[in-house]
Amino acid sequence: MAESNAFQCDEFLIDLENVSFSYPGQGPLLDRLNFQLRKGERLGLIGPNGSGKSTFMHLLMGLIKPDSGSVRLFGMPMAGEKDFKQARKRLGFVFQNADDQLFSPTVIEDVAFGLLNSGKTPKEAVALSKKILRALDLEGFEDRITYKLSGGEKKLVSLATVLVMEPEVLLLDEPTTGLDEQTVKRIADLLNELNIGYVVVSHEFYFLAKTTRDIFAMKNGQIRFQCTSDQFRPAG
Ligand SMILES: Nc1ncnc2c1ncn2[C@@H]1O[C@H](COP(=O)(O)OP(=O)(O)OP(=O)(O)O)[C@@H](O)[C@H]1O
User: Fold this and answer.
1) What are the pocket residues of ligand 1 if the criterion is a CB atom closer than 6 Å to any ligand atom?
2) pLDDT exceeding 70 applies to what percent of the chain?
3) How far is the CA of 63 from the centre of ligand 1 (A)?
4) pLDDT tens-digit readout, 119-143
5) How far away, in angstroms, is 55 Cα from ligand 1 center?
6) Do residues 33 and 18 make contact, with C-beta atoms less than 8 angstroms apart?
């Protein structure tokens, strides 16, 4: 029994079991929620406003702690901040609000920040940052003042700061909000080219259908399978 459990846990990059959570003074938001992501899996998550999708992402990152239940990442139980600190090096999280992600004066400083922190030389960090900016069609943005960028530009720079770190799993919270059609397509193409698994929270069913295999829905504090992308047919 113990052996089969160990096997199961190693199979999942993300494994949440019976996770419950409520914000202080509020009723239960997540209620014995179960969720698993296997290596290379690409899952979408939809759900009404306020249903707890961002909260779920924040729990995965260890930014908030469950009231009960267990969180395992990369096969390891997340007992406290020390464990999450290690796991965060392997997770790439794009916040719903780009202003929560960007804090440096210029774009290149923001994109290079994580690389420098992880021991890359300034020369390496700048070269890798420029490469990812090019991939996102942000060439020439290096010296732009981050807080003066448009909402969509900030979103793309947020994505650059995460992708440049080459995470093993991506967590994307509403990556297309405020982006024009062409940019949404560019992000979808980019995600499809990546060789890693991810969870995308989005209200845009069509974007999820283009970038994920299975789509789940957050409802009544739980995450349930909704459909596979090829079952999804846009209206009209
Ligand atoms: N830090 C917080 N303190 C108290 N309540 C919060 C906090 N963050 C979120 N909430 C509440 O928890 C509920 C779920 O919020 P959450 O942002 O997780 O929903 P969501 O599904 O991501 O919504 P949306 O689709 O609108 O982005 C909401 O009612 C929200 O007001």
Assistant:
1) 23, 29, 47, 49-55, 96
2) 94
3) 14
4) 999 999 999 999 999 988 899 999 9
5) 6
6) yes
Query: What confidence tens digit (pLDDT) does each residue in 60-95 have?
Result: 999 999 999 999 999 999 999 999 999 999 999 999
Those residues with Cβ within 8 angstroms of residue 102's Cβ, 6 or more apart along the chain or in another chain: 110, 146, 147, 154, 157, 158, 161
Q: What is the ipTM of this complex?
A: 0.98
**Nearest to residue 37, comparing CAs of 9, 64, 18?**
9
CATH number of 34-229: 3.40.50.300
DSSP classification of residue 147: G
Six token digits for residue 7 = 């096997």
What's the Cα-to-Cα distance from 68 to each of 16, 18, 24, 33, rounded to whole Å?
11, 7, 14, 10
**188: which DSSP letter?**
H
